[in-house]
Structure formats: structure tokens, C-alpha cells
Amino acid sequence: MHLSADLLRTHLAYTAWASKRLVEAASVLSEAELTRDFATSEHSVLGTLVHVFAADRIWLARIQGHAPARFINPEADMHLSVLRDDWPTLLANWQHYAAALNDTDTGQVISYKDLKGNAYQSPLWQIVLHVVNHATHHRGQASGMIRAMGHTPPPLDLIAYYRQPGNAHP
After folding, report:
1. Which helix (DSSP H) or strand (DSSP E) does residue 111 occupy?
2. Is 110 helix (H, G, I), strand (E, B) or coil?
3. Which of 34, 64, 110, 114 satisfies CB 3.0 to 4.6 Å to 29 for a cystine?
4. Are 138 and 42 in contact, with CB atoms under 8 Å apart?
């Protein structure tokens, strides 16, 4: 099975749009709210968003053949400013990578290792959809945390993205 390159580009554009909106929503939180422990896997709004940022970074490195050894560098990554400044650049790099893809490329099998050193192979389209789905899952968690603290997170649904002028493609 192959998915079209246009469809992958659309989903990568969606994930950039949704992540940017959620970082903007997180920017109005106090430091205490941003780091409040919700007893989830990544603990807080900040921890959850940094987890997605780090996953986006490591998966792009994997498909480019040079995965880093560390998932998160807590000293460098655990700052809202990193999410505001570095994540959009990373997501733009994903989009730049995808811009050169054709429909045949989406079936290319990528060999990579997980952080424990286990080797895997996956078609590119599966990796891209995983990256988008993973981010969607954790953005939902972070949105719930924001709502639990009395704030209203922005709509992040894929259909909300499609409803924006110019986004209902391919």
C-alpha cells in the first residue's frame, strides 16, 4: 500500500498547524500551570509538548539516516521558548523533506533503530502517519490538561484544519 505524497504533505501541514496552535495556548499559562503534574506519562503540559517535539525530531533524523542517541535533553528542551522557536523550524524541515517526495517515494522502506538499539524497517508513509498520529494523541492530552486548569484550548481537530481556507487539499 502506498499513500500519495500530497496526502502526507497535507497531514504534516496539519500537525504543524495544530502544534503551533497548542504552543500558543500553552504560552498563556503560568509557570506553575505549565509544569503542573497531572500524573500522566509526560506529567505536564510542558512535558507532553516537549515529548512530541522530541519525537518529531528523532523521527525526522531516522528517515534522514542519522538518528540522535538521546530522545530528550531536559536541560535544553524543557522550555516553552524552545517549543516556540525550534519546533516550528523542525516542522518546516519535515515539510521541506516532504515537498520533494513523489508517490513512489512514500513506499520507500526506512531502516532505523529505536532508542534501545532494536532494528526496524517501515515504509515512509507509515512513519509519517505515525508521527502525525503520535502528535495528535499527545496534543489531546495537553488540551485536556489545559482545560482542566480552567483554560480553553483551541480547536485542533483535523476537520478544523480542513475548514481553514486553502487547507482542504489534496
Report:
1. strand 109-113
2. strand
3. 34
4. yes
Note the residue count of the chain: 170
- Show the cell assigned to 98: 516532504
Q: Give the pLDDT of the chain (170 residues) as one tens digit per residue.
A: 779 999 999 999 999 999 999 999 999 999 999 999 999 999 999 999 999 999 999 999 999 998 776 787 878 899 999 999 999 999 999 999 999 999 999 999 999 998 888 999 999 999 999 999 999 999 999 999 999 999 999 999 999 999 998 886 66
What three-state secondary structure class fits 36?
A: coil
Cα atoms in the Cβ-side hemisphere of radius 13 Å centred on 137: 12
Residue 83 near residue 23 (C-beta atoms within 8 A) = yes
Nearest to 54 by CA among 21, 78, 33, 36: 78
Residue 126 burial (C-beta neighbours within 10 Å; 0-12, 13-18, 19+) = middle
